[in-house]
Amino acid sequence: MAITNKIENFHMEVNQAFLDKAQALAPSLITTEIRPAGAVKIVSCGQDYAAQETGQGFAQSQPLGRGDSLCLDFGDHRVGYVSFNLTSVGSPPDAPACLRLRFGEIPYELTVGLSDYRGEISSSWIQEELIHVDILPAQIRLPRRYAFRYLELVVIDTSPKYQVVVGDVVCTAVTSADRAAVPALNLGDPELLALDRVSLKTMEDCMQSVFEDGPKRDRRLWLGDLRLQAQTNYVTFRNNDLVKRCLYLFAGLTQNEGRVGACLFMEPRPQVDDTALFDYALFFVSCLHDYYAATGDRETLAELFPTAERQLELALRELDGRGIVTDRDTWWCFLDWGEGLNKQAGAQAILIYTLKQGTAMAEWLGKADRAAALRTAAGQASQAALDCLWDGAQGFFVSGAERQLSWISQVWFALAKVLDPGETVRLLQRVMAQKPGIPLVTPYAYHHLIEALMENGLREQAVAAMKGYWGEMIREGADTFWELFDTNDRYASPYGCRAVNSFCHAWSSTPAYFIRTYLNP
Amino acid sequence: MAITNKIENFHMEVNQAFLDKAQALAPSLITTEIRPAGAVKIVSCGQDYAAQETGQGFAQSQPLGRGDSLCLDFGDHRVGYVSFNLTSVGSPPDAPACLRLRFGEIPYELTVGLSDYRGEISSSWIQEELIHVDILPAQIRLPRRYAFRYLELVVIDTSPKYQVVVGDVVCTAVTSADRAAVPALNLGDPELLALDRVSLKTMEDCMQSVFEDGPKRDRRLWLGDLRLQAQTNYVTFRNNDLVKRCLYLFAGLTQNEGRVGACLFMEPRPQVDDTALFDYALFFVSCLHDYYAATGDRETLAELFPTAERQLELALRELDGRGIVTDRDTWWCFLDWGEGLNKQAGAQAILIYTLKQGTAMAEWLGKADRAAALRTAAGQASQAALDCLWDGAQGFFVSGAERQLSWISQVWFALAKVLDPGETVRLLQRVMAQKPGIPLVTPYAYHHLIEALMENGLREQAVAAMKGYWGEMIREGADTFWELFDTNDRYASPYGCRAVNSFCHAWSSTPAYFIRTYLNP
Hints:
homodimer; 521 residues; alpha+beta; nine-stranded antiparallel β-sheet; three-stranded antiparallel β-sheet; 16 strands; 37% helix; globular
């Protein structure tokens, strides 16, 4: 995520008991020492760059002097801390060694330096360091965590009297995901197996102290991402305590009026960001609903249900006289990164979707009055949507004053089950056939399409779409699934520079969820 | 120093007992916390740059975002470690903060970045750092030692949602020089007092674990510099153990055949460099001679005399059939940085100068045979010089096959007392009047001119030359005396870029020696 809003007169409300519960669930990180698979050369390749194997493994570099460089391939996407030895050959070092290090999840990132960057979001996301080593030999331990597969090391200078040798390069990879907990698959389809494998790697690298959205950027706990990570987690790494921890964090650190924030920071202390998103706040309801469905943890459900209910109350306050969520000019609801996308219809559908989940939770808790009230609200919101947003002539839901057509509006109304099942199937078939208006652009939005297709028995289309979209990322060389993938514009970035796109992004890891939920025999 | 040579088949010979003695004398460093005097603005000023006061003290910065910068003036030259606090204002930091720091002994250095540098010696001497701060607020402690007066901090990026504030900036200055040990001066001349003050500051900043040549560059123990530092030390900081330590280090870590190296490194372990210089090796003799004359430490004299004698033996091996030091095309003897300077005559004079000091030490130790042998060698070398290098028609010593004229040849023959006293005075007067051949370029060479003038009763000319040369550095804004100062070319650098010149250099700190030895009543 990157575009942001800021709620007015923001303050954080802390529920210390919830926060304490969350902190007690902090996971131990599993560390693995990984050495480079070999040295590579980054070469231009059409519009992109590729890492060309040099045919050598890597134990230590040749002696390197001013301007020499070395590019290492760690064999797969890695999240962790890097250390190496730097020794000298020649005369005793009579000047410091100065090195530039650049880390890339993909080869292209190694070609974009901090000083070349012209993107819109912070250049501080470029994983580039400049280090001086005054005393050689030295054991260098870089203090920051990086997300990368490739490491380029350029010797800015040594001196004419000595050169440096780089050796013993190690990435201490970190994750809270335990591979041993992942159930085996009973599938033969190599495409699906590949999708599952890359999903797991993506999940693994995003599972840290919390579920991060991306280990390179933003390295943060976003509610929208958490919802999909949690769903995938239940059928893969099954670290349910990590989901529970995140739920307690969101409930323990709210914004004004008990609103659940769009994201949390964990350092230097846990705190909620001042960004509020209509859909993300409601996804607290979904996360809690899904958590209970997966775990049966009634105590947590009971303790956190009031927080969930509060999000529904706050959302219902946003309805206009017609019962439709009030549209806004600001970045108030996420849905997807589609250019010019109007959020009103999607927001309405998500409100209905989560009112229904709230109803279910109230029923599970035996709160009949609350269940009835929420069911009524869901019914009214659905009817308002049918009255005001459904365009019968076109056979699509429209959004905003300009009655915008978009895929995501249809997808969310399908998920919210506002039409009857047969109508929903036909709606989805029309979407696939007619491609109405603004397309889906993120894997996050594609997830919801696949989910709608799967839920409505359109399994064949779902699998085809999944293989077409995520499968294409793998064919493009993805080690982990990307934050952004536009099949019509492979090099797109909403940030003005692809180098700061996240190439390991939690919201893209859901093929494993679909495969294990709907396709594993 | 920067141009280097490398002796063939170099190996280090270690005298562990000497090394142990040296290490037992390692000084404690005195630390002082220094805060910035204020914020300044670096402005173009003719061919140079100046630090313009902003009229504000400095407690903390304004909030700084992408591209904003801050320049702090620490009020005087500093050698030490820098720490500061970085806090954020605005929303919780949603991206790392990335800062570029640049340290300068003079304002000009802040205008030369690592990527702009086109000098010949290593760009790693440019005091520039790039840091990423992932978690705010942060207490930043830079691990490297810097030599500087000015610190420029540029915010490469934060994010649109927050800015950083820089506060609590502290330089923990380090030195092994104790100001309390410096005798008071009984002088009224403000020019001389200023020369003494700047000399002391230069000495102080170069006195660390050993006598360094320059705390910015090379941060190393060079014998040529040590000789002048020691002489100045005896009449200022009087840290005689630090001289003793350096003598034992040079004697304990020699090159092939017991040759004393031109310089030593202290980290990661004490070691001698592979650079050999004819004059510098002989200055071990001078340093020991001067140390005994200043301290009367007979035990050290006796223990290290063999090392001194060995340097004389090795030097005498270099005499040709005429008894003249063999000239070479390589960088084999230092003397000065003069363009095209031939070293033969200066080397011959230094050999005579040190043979005489060797003779004196042999006498002090009651080694009559050795004294006689050294006296004879000195006499023969002097006669050879008069026969082969003295040009009676011109009234100057000439150097090399092309009979080159230079100031430094005359200066060193004056110091070696090869002519009788009256002739030496007239030689020096001719030098000052006729300015023969290659001029002096470094303060190190000027030192030897002043010393020759002082020793030969030409005090008035000595003081005028000192006030003209070092005084001009002060008028140019020097806080500490510079490694290089060419009155005909203020912006000269032998390194292709003035930013890597050292602006606090030990060999330039001798006005205090002259003032306290020859001028203090």
